[in-house]
């Protein structure tokens, strides 16, 4: 760890202005925004798929009676 108090202010301020700048943080923020957009899209797609499955006609009748046991909670 650097002891900033041991160095003169000119050295400390010079070190602050040398380096990659804000570019890595901006790139990381853009990557997180892309990930958030993908996750939101996937969640919407998943929601519409589940909605379609719950209102589909196959959901009623003999198929439902035969698959009812699969809907029970699993023992832990």
TrEMBL record:
Residues 3-59 form the PPE domain. InterPro entries: PPE_dom, PPE_sf. GO terms for biological process: response to host immune response. Pfam families: PPE (PF00823). Belongs to the mycobacterial PPE family. PANTHER family: GLUTAMINE-RICH PROTEIN 2 (PTHR46766:SF1). This is PPE domain-containing protein.
């Amino acid at each position: 760890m650097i002891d900033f108090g041991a160095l003169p202010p000119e050295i400390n301020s010079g070190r602050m202005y040398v380096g990659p700048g804000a570019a890595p943080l901006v790139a990381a923020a853009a990557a997180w925004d892309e990930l958030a957009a993908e996750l939101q899209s996937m969640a919407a797609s998943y929601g519409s798929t589940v909605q379609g499955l719950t209102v589909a006609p196959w959901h009623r009748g003999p198929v439902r009676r035969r698959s009812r046991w699969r809907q029970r909670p699993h023992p832990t």
